[in-house]
Give the backbone structure.
Amino acid sequence: MTTVFFDIDTQLDFMFPAGALYVPGAETILDHIAVLNHLGHTVISTMDAHTEDDPEFREWPHHCVAGTLGQRKPSATLLEHRVIAANAPGPITIAHARQILLEKQTFDCFTNLKLVRILDALNADRYVVYGVVTEICVKLAAMGLLKSGRRVELVTDAVRSLTDEARKKMLGDFTAAGGVLTTVSNVTGV
């Protein structure tokens, strides 16, 4: 079975209290994210890559502006042999990549013009999803992947939410749509 991991938006601006749009408790899952990313599967790491005047900033504070410290991923989550998939037309070569840094300017990773081609090339049977924020970007990635008809698992102890109520609703919607809830220990076998 071919498995692809989806590391959603684990960027400095979201993961640490000093970040521009910190998700409460996100730093507590960083060790889990690092373990999952280093298991040996291909990892698609979604990343906000905003411009200074991005339309999203009408609703949310400035965060993850391309090229800033806050837009970077913690080093523990990065793998060797990675490629950047900018949200722009053109080819993408992923043949030897262990990690694909998928840039996006909206909540939904499926707005990246290269994602569908990447998924087709990887041809996975199973997707394992984790990161931040459970009820926003994680939800859109997980639900979008479910539409592919393949197995999608959400790692419940490797996600963080803005509210418990929103988290519970998202998990309920996800399982009702056919998604599977799992934990880091179930995924790693430890």
